[in-house]
UniProtKB/TrEMBL annotation, chains A, B:
The lineage of its organism: Bacteria, Pseudomonadati, Pseudomonadota, Alphaproteobacteria, Rhodobacterales. GO terms for molecular function: hydrolase activity. PANTHER family: 5'-DEOXYNUCLEOTIDASE HDDC2. This is HD family hydrolase. It comes from Sulfitobacter aestuarii. Keywords: Hydrolase, Metal-binding. Gene3D superfamilies: Hypothetical protein af1432. It comes from the Bacteria.
Length: 194, 194
């Protein structure tokens, strides 16, 4: 029992490092970059508050479990900003290695259970995973709108760049959220806010 | 529909401020104070990983919903460190006002749904709420053990002070976690680590 708890706590202590993984997006007040741990919490809250945007086959509690775990691999692999340029094959290899190491700190039964939840998110095939992915793409533009541009300024993006990167992914799991985001993004750029 | 989404996003943007609410506990590496948003994420992960410490009547998904919401009121009321001295009646009044204002940003149905989850946590009467409260008391000593003392140093506490403040609350929802914490805390102070 004690050995099991020691493994569980070792994993939870290692997971603490996600609080030091920085993202391209800032807080709504623009004061500093958001880290991936607080971002993950925020997405869980998005899931609770925006559950009415999910299709009938989506299980919100499963979505939340995915969102708790979805960025853990960034402890080893780092965050890949939406507007950055990355070799997707390399990123996926790094993330698989990270998953191997991190979930491998757990007792075998928990390792398998939590890794399966993360793999479901990554595969983005089930309705719950698609909705979780949609929220993960929907939150950064909401942060950028609130902070007056955020990572859109850093990456010098146009409304068309934004649409190319996020429209299909948000629409796949939560079409109403893309309709809403598009309207607000269009209005924001039309004001000449950037 | 749009008005509803505007209200939902206004709430989610206001909730972003929890990322700027600082706690007495530091990250495991001692580098900086933990904020209440990333702390809430960490507790959700604790619930997933330590579910085997919960009694049979505990619903882990409900525990997680409580943990996502449990500290939101700190946006207005601030965090009250475990070893600080507070007038509990004043704190509860401040937190009720905060709940009124924050959940009040939401459409009525969501306001009632989420506030009920938070009230269940606060009341600490259901098995799920008790387990959630136990995790909230169990995580800070794990952080302090990892960082070499943390808030125990700042507040100059003894092992007896720690036991007085957290033993009953952890034991009520997760007796195995207090047994584990006590053994590790005793060993830590016996080493003369502080
Ligand atoms: Ca608290």
């Amino acid at each position: 029992m004690t050995l099991r708890l020691d493994q569980q706590i070792a994993f939870l202590n290692e997971a603490d490092r996600l609080k030091s993984t920085l993202r391209a997006t800032t807080l709504c007040d623009g004061s500093r970059p958001e880290n991936s741990a607080e971002h993950s919490w925020h997405l869980c809250l998005y899931a609770l508050v925006l559950a009415d945007q999910a299709g009938p086959q989506v299980e919100i509690d499963r979505v939340i479990r995915m969102l708790i775990l979805h960025d853990l691999v960034e402890i080893d692999a780092g965050d890949n900003p939406i507007y950055g340029d990355f070799d997707q094959t390399v990123v996926e290899q790094q993330e698989q290695l990270a998953a191997e190491r991190l979930f491998g700190l757990l007792p075998d039964d928990l390792r398998d259970e939590l890794r399966a939840i993360w793999e479901e998110f990554e595969a983005a095939e089930t309705p719950s995973a698609r909705f979780a992915k949609s929220l993960d793409r929907f939150q950064p533009p909401m942060q950028n709108l609130a902070s007056g541009g955020g990572s859109w300024i850093d990456y010098k993006v146009t409304p068309q760049d934004i649409e190319t990167r996020i429209a299909a992914k948000i629409t796949r799991g939560a079409p109403g959220l893309w309709t809403y985001a598009k309207r607000r993004i269009t209005a924001f750029f039309a004001q000449g806010a950037l």
